[in-house]
TrEMBL record, chain A:
Binds 1 potassium ion per subunit. One of its GO terms (molecular function) is GTP binding. The keyword Metal-binding applies. (6S)-5-formyl-5,6,7,8-tetrahydrofolate binds at residues 22, 87, 126, 461. The gene is mnmE. It is found in: Cytoplasm. Its cofactor is K(+). Pfam families: MMR_HSR1 (PF01926), MnmE_helical (PF12631), TrmE_N (PF10396). Its EC number is 3.6.-.-. SUPFAM superfamilies: P-loop containing nucleoside triphosphate hydrolases. CDD domains: trmE, TrmE_N. Mg(2+) binds at residues 237, 258. This is tRNA modification GTPase MnmE.
From TrEMBL, chain B:
NAD-binding protein involved in the addition of a carboxymethylaminomethyl (cmnm) group at the wobble position (U34) of certain tRNAs, forming tRNA-cmnm(5)s(2)U34. Its cofactor is FAD. This is tRNA uridine 5-carboxymethylaminomethyl modification enzyme MnmG. InterPro entries: FAD/NAD-bd_sf, GIDA_C_N, MnmG, MnmG-rel, MnmG-rel_CS, MnmG_C, MnmG_C_subdom, MnmG_C_subdom_sf. GO terms for cellular component: cytosol. The keyword Thylakoid does not apply. It comes from Filibacter tadaridae. Residues 546-617 form the tRNA uridine 5-carboxymethylaminomethyl modification enzyme C-terminal subdomain domain. SMART domains: GIDA_assoc_3. NCBIfam families: mnmG_gidA. One of its GO terms (biological process) is tRNA wobble uridine modification. Belongs to the MnmG family. The gene is mnmG. It holds the Pfam family GIDA_C_1st.
């Protein structure tokens, strides 16, 4: 599509004080108005062009405040692309800007291809035609390269997985179509709503799995899910506070899945951390006591990183040892706190209990050891393989956005099926899911449905 | 042979099949003096295959033709033997009407309509060649030397172009049903430089009803409720004839497998490409060997004949094998075969040689419509005929051309597919070919197209007034339901309980309550009655518009986005070869199709997004690299 509204992060990835997400297209202002709220309540569409505005981004679905931002409004034609342009200035770091981008994509913008803003500027006559050949080559190269990058970067397994999902959807669609176009053929199984729900549920679960397993994607989207555990009074709360003070919490959030757990986001040396159960820690209650054994086990299981806090001034207790058991096999950093007090803890025993786990000693009271801890976290995450700002990130973000779109449409289909909407209407959302998944692997040939129809079923007069 | 001047017309239509009659009627009614030339006046609007019209997608096309003033809907309403609404258990977008036709009555009625049309001359004659000067058609002459001059010519020759009938190892030059084939015209079209393809289609045998044992079959009656295709029909046929359903038996499959070597399909005698949606029984049994049986529908060909069409048994096997096949089917053990099934091969022109007006790119003022363009089906033919007739007349009368979009009508989908993508097999409309099928419904064909038909002069004032009134009623009723609040009271709860729905807890707008899947308009109507009872058609559209509002809205947004691409026009004189950067493969297909808009270009297979970007650059800059001479 060439005239839709596009969005992308237009500042280099990594740690700047400010990141900018740029929107361009006919719907740029409308999309921004859906999520941007000024304290005075005035809409951007009513504001004069080339002005800058302070306000908050609010997710219209959840009502949650996502970011505190400055928004530049530039209406066509005096803009870089000669289209309406909105630039959202948000806090720096991967998490904030990525959340803003995801929100904008969710509200109807499409992630720009590499070089697409420049291309539009050119198409709309902003750039001189004297360089026409050069720009043409650029477009050709960029479009082709983007495609190649998208295809080669995706590992074969992901491509096959998505191909498999599409094939399942295509067969479902063909069956719906054949029921419509050949209503009297009795040797074709009727695609009933329960059958449709079954297929769509499977696809949704697979998409969820994909979103989960693409760990980088998840981290970029949600942050590294981090749980701080330890006995009462070992310093969990101090650890939390020092992480937050040092790094400034970006946002407070109530997670949808476990409603009673409050989370906060911090950016530790470029690593986005989603700190789970911050409220529980502040109230110096234990997570297990607060939300029950089952739920806390689940939270632990889903965590990407566990900070296990021990009291240096006390001997290891049975409780501590149980915690060691609970986190065995997971990415854990042991924080031995209160080094300002005389040491009673048996370090040898701690090492025995935790093979190959990073141990950091701190005195949070004296603000010692925090740097070391942060380095440990960053080291664990990066291991030298995340390069900010390169195409890996862009194409992954594209995949994630598309997977999210696919998930939304398949959920729409399931919701409609639950309500008893006819199969051939539900099918609209299923088709859309199929198309979106196709965009990920670069395959959206429309005729495939008709081919499937005739190879799968015996039809005719 | 000496030639003589036989007359001058605005428009000449060659052929009087389903495409030809609609082309002639629309051209004449728009004000172009029109001549129809047909080989045989007794074969006007003949149905050489199924005695049936409509069904999914196709039925909606018949409604669309009617909404634009075409004849097909009105004629079938008068001459059918049964009608059924299909897919009634599904959503509103896929409901479709199908009629079994009385073939003979259908032809007679259509012929009468043509005869009575004022601006139209009907004449029997075989066209030999076109008169073409400077890339522009000027007329034609027939086998007897009659020269007709015309401003426009529409060719609707169906499967007649170099037609060949094949039964077993017998192959002879023939049009369908042993009519004369058209050979001279085919050769001359080729000489004029048209790219031709060879397609194949087929038909099953017919049997005598008197010799069928119907007790071994299942009855398939028509709907009890009166149905009609045309928005103008007020009288309904109540006396309907049933069809009958039986199945192939294991013996049928054995016979086919034993005699496959005699099938021209498998011996290689047939080279033409056949349609996948209309396979022969040989094909079905070979390709789907695991199916133990296939359905066979027995369809009467009319009220005054015993001939029965054996749907499902399309074949080109030798006649003696066909006899054995028939006898193997339960109910047909003693059936007398009246006509054998056959395959027919014919020439079609590659439809990418046409503009979306159906005018040929090679020769100005020459149009083609129907099976000659590679389609199959009476409805597809009629739709093209209608559009070719409209555009030929518009051309003569210097009016604006008429191109329906993919979001306007199935007719738009059909024409766009043909001229943009071409077709490698006989093309049939399927609901899955339409991206916006929730917008292209059976019930709203009038809302979509009546206004267009009216502006062209194809819809009467009276009908247009009735349409406007209906539209007003629908709008008013939707507004009323959006504004009226339904309060939870005993009467309301009782009505809801009839549907097994959950009680109404709080007052709600009537329109919102109607969005519940289990609630129908008729229940809302009882809760909050309108001042005057509406017609069923109005009620249906009110219900669909409100119930599926969200989905309709989504479709409309998609259409809106696509419109921007449709509005980016490509200059007719663009020289793709001069645009560096466009891939060679894309250049070649763009040169062939010569799309009118960026949207159309993007639908061509072989043109990728980078090519489109580059194309956009040239157009946006207003600098066409080089203008072809």
């Amino acid at each position: 599509m060439h005239f839709d509204t596009i969005a992308a992060i237009s500042t280099p990835m990594g740690e700047g004080a400010i990141s900018i997400v740029r929107l361009s297209g006919d719907e740029a202002v409308q999309i921004a108005d859906k999520i941007f709220h000024k304290p005075a309540g005035k809409k951007l569409i009513d504001e004069p062009s080339h002005t800058i505005h302070y306000g908050h981004l609010i997710d219209p679905t959840s009502g949650e405040t996502v970011e505190e931002v400055m928004v530049s409004l530039m209406k066509a034609p005096k803009t870089f692309t000669r289209e309406d342009v909105v630039e959202v200035n948000c806090h720096g770091g991967i998490v904030a800007v990525n959340r803003v981008l995801q929100l904008i994509l969710k509200e109807g913008a499409r992630l720009a291809e590499p070089g697409e803003f420049t291309k539009r500027a050119f198409l709309n006559g902003r750039i001189d035609l004297s360089q026409s050949e050069a720009v043409m080559d650029l477009i050709r190269a960029k479009t082709d390269r983007a495609m190649n990058v998208a295809l080669t970067q995706m590992d074969g397994k992901l491509s096959r997985l998505i191909g498999g999902l599409r094939q399942a959807l295509l067969e479902t669609l063909a069956q719906v179509e054949v029921n419509i176009d050949y209503p009297e053929y009795d040797d074709v199984e009727e695609m009933t709503i329960p059958l449709m729900i079954q297929k769509c549920t499977w696809v949704k679960e697979e998409i969820d799995k994909l979103l989960r397993t693409s760990s980088q994607g998840k981290i970029l989207r949600e942050g590294l899910s981090t749980v701080i555990i330890g006995r009462p009074n070992v310093g969990k709360s101090s650890l939390l506070n020092s992480l937050i003070q040092e790094n400034k919490a970006i946002v407070t959030n109530i997670a949808g899945t476990t409603r009673d757990i409050i989370e906060e986001y911090v950016n530790v040396r470029g690593v986005p951390l989603r700190l789970v159960d911050t409220a529980g820690i502040r109230e110096t209650e234990d997570i297990v006591e607060r939300i029950g054994v089952e739920k806390s086990r689940k939270v632990l299981k889903e965590a990407d990183l566990i900070l296990l806090v021990l009291d240096s001034a006390e001997e290891l207790t049975i409780e501590d040892e149980r915690l060691f058991e609970a986190v065995s096999g997971m990415d854990t950093i042991i924080v031995i706190n209160k080094t300002d007090l005389p040491r009673k803890i048996d370090l040898v025993r701690v090492k025995q209990l935790t093979s190959n786990v990073k141990i950091v000693t701190t005195s949070l009271l004296k603000d010692e050891g925090v740097d070391e801890l942060e380095e440990a976290i960053a080291g664990l995450f990066f291991e030298g393989n995340l390069e900010a700002g390169d195409l890996t990130y862009v194409s992954n973000a594209r995949h994630i956005a598309l997977l999210h779109n696919a998930r939304t449409t398949i959920e729409d289909a399931l919701g409609a099926a639950d309500e008893g909407v006819p199969v051939d209407i539900i099918q609209i959302d299923v088709t859309r899911t199929w198309e979106i998944l196709g965009e990920i692997i670069g395959d959206t040939v429309q005729d495939s449905l008709i081919n499937q129809l005739f190879s799968q079923f015996c039809l005719g007069k | 042979m000496s030639k003589f001047e036989a007359g001058t017309f605005d428009c000449i239509v060659i052929g009087a099949g389903h495409a030809g009659v609609e082309a002639a009627l629309s051209a004449a009614r728009m004000g172009a003096s029109t001549l129809v030339l047909t080989m045989n006046l007794d074969m006007i609007a003949f149905m050489p295959c199924n005695p049936s019209l409509g069904g999914p997608a196709k039925g909606i096309v018949v409604r669309e033709i009617d909404a634009m003033g075409g004849a097909m809907g009105k004629v079938i309403d008068k001459t059918h033997i049964q009608m059924r609404m299909l897919n009634t258990g599904k959503g509103p977008a896929v409901r479709a009407l199908r009629a079994q036709a009385d073939k003979v009555l259908y032809q007679q009625e259509m012929k009468r309509i043509l005869e009575e049309e004022e601006n139209l001359t009907l004449h029997q004659g075989v066209v030999e060649d076109l008169i073409v000067e400077d890339g522009e058609v000027k007329g034609l002459f027939t086998q007897v030397g009659a020269v007709y001059r015309a401003k426009t010519v529409i060719i609707t020759t169906g499967t007649f172009l170099r037609g060949e009938v094949i039964i077993g190892d017998l192959k002879y030059s023939s049009g369908p049903n042993n009519q004369m084939p058209s050979i001279g015209l085919a050769e001359n079209l080729e000489k004029l430089g048209f790219d031709m393809v060879r397609f194949k289609t087929g038909t099953p045998p017919r049997v005598n009803s008197r010799t069928i044992d119907y007790s071994k079959t299942e009855i398939q009656p028509g709907d009890e409720k009166p149905r009609a295709f045309s928005y103008e029909t007020t009288e309904f046929i109540t006396d309907q004839l049933p069809c009958w359903l039986t199945y192939t038996a294991p013996r049928t499959h054995e016979i086919i497998n034993e005699n496959l070597h005699l099938s021209p399909m498998y011996s290689g005698a047939i080279k033409g490409k056949g349609p996948r949606y209309c396979p022969s029984i040989e094909d079905k049994i070979v390709r789907f060997a695991d199916k133990s049986r296939h359905q066979i529908f027995l369809e009467p060909e009319g009220r005054n004949t015993n001939e029965v069409y054996v749907q499902g048994l399309s074949t080109s096997l030798p006649e003696h094998v066909q006899r054995m096949l028939i006898e193997s089917v339960p109910g047909l053990e003693k059936a007398e075969m009246m006509r054998a099934g056959y395959a027919i091969e014919y020439d079609a022109i590659t439809p990418t040689q046409l503009w979306p007006t159906l005018e040929t790119k090679k020769i100005r003022n020459l149009y083609t419509a129907g099976q000659i363009n590679g389609t199959s089906g009476y409805e597809e033919a009629a739709a093209q005929g209608l559009m070719a007739g409209i555009n030929a007349a518009a051309n003569v009368l210097e009016k604006e051309e008429v191109i329906l979009g993919r979001a306007d009508a199935y007719i738009g989908v059909l024409v766009d597919d043909l001229v943009t993508k071409g077709t490698s097999e006989p093309y049939r409309l399927l609901t899955s070919r339409a991206e916006y099928r929730l917008l292209l419904r059976h019930d709203n064909a009038d809302m979509r197209l009546t206004e267009i038909g009216y502006k062209l002069g194809l819809i009467s004032e009276e009908r247009h007034d009735a349409f406007l009134m209906k539209k007003q009623q629908i709008d008013d009723e939707i507004t009323r339901l959006r504004q009226t609040t339904i309060k939870p009271n005993e009467m309301v709860q009782a009505i809801i309980q009839e549907t097994d729905g959950s009680d109404l807890r709080e007052p709600m707008k009537a329109a919102d309550l109607l969005k519940r899947p289990e609630i129908k308009y008729n229940q809302i109507e009882r809760m909050v009655p309108p001042t005057e009872k509406h017609s069923e058609e109005v009620e249906e559209q009110v219900e669909i518009s409100i119930k599926y509002e969200g989905y309709i809205e989504k479709s409309l947004q998609q259409v809106e986005r696509m419109k921007k691409m449709e509005n980016k026009k490509i200059p007719e004189n663009i020289d793709y070869n001069a645009i560096s950067g466009i891939a060679t493969e894309a250049k070649s297909v763009l040169n062939e199709v010569r799309p009118l808009s960026i949207a159309q270009a993007s639908r061509i297979s072989g043109v990728n997004p980078a090519d489109i970007s580059i194309l956009l650059v040239y157009i946006e800059q207003g600098k066409i690299a080089k203008v072809s001479s």
